[in-house]
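REQUEST FORM: STRUCTURE PREDICTION
Request ID: SP-0412
Submitted by: Lab K.M.
Chain count: 1
Length (residues): 275
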Amino acid sequence: MTEKNNSLPIVNIDYWSDFAKELVNSSTLKLNGKILDVGTGGGACLIAAADYLGKNCQLIGIDKNENRIFQTKNKFKDMGVENVKFQIMDGNNLKFENESFDNILCGFIGFGGDYDFETNRFISRNTKMKEIFRILKIGGEAAFSTWAYQQDIEVARDLLQKYLIDKNLKKRDEIASLSISYSKETIKGFKVIMEDAGFSKIRIFLRDYQIIYKTIDEWWKVMETAAWVMRYALNHDHNKLNDLKNHSLPQGIESFRKGGVYIFQKSVIFAFGLK
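STATUS: Completed
RESULT:
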């Protein structure tokens, strides 16, 4: 477990906007360019790009979740952002012509399905990264953010594992192999998959942050969504989730308490490459 560093910059509980701004501000976005956001989710990267370039760009957001696209489309309509379009699409099969975009933004879409970052080897054909490279214009830039470490979510997984052992609810090998609920990636591995796709002039850096939870209930509420392995392992049983909370808190996170709040580290990889 990484030691807490209380001098790190602070991000909000709604950290997607913080990381999207960092990604966009570190990118080289083309004025009047055509910009795609792969795995747009709530549209944080598109909002950051719109704030950065104003109306001087064409924005397109794609996501394979139809309901998410519907919600985000309505959000942008309420915001009055008109230079944006949304499409339902899977990042592994991009329905665009070759060399369609000046810039491509990819915030936390995860490449663990193609590459094993622990053993540093491909486990699939690197389809997603190659698709992104294919639709990028010559001279265009793709920008990525991805998780290197989420202390709060890994702590939640640790507490879940202890609970399952104490309650004798699963076999030991099942408990040991539980997911950490996010695609944990590395600079070394990310450089490999970008080079394999054809990117050049690759620049990658890691940035550490701290996230602050004001109360135990605030931490738990976020973990119920972000640490999805808790719901999965307990078969979405609300009573068992409450029992896990009562069994594990507050003692499970008291070591992270500082000045009346709970402080955890998040580490993000930002990567950029040209075609």
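NOTES: The first strand starts at residue 10 and ends at 11.
Reviewed by: T.R.
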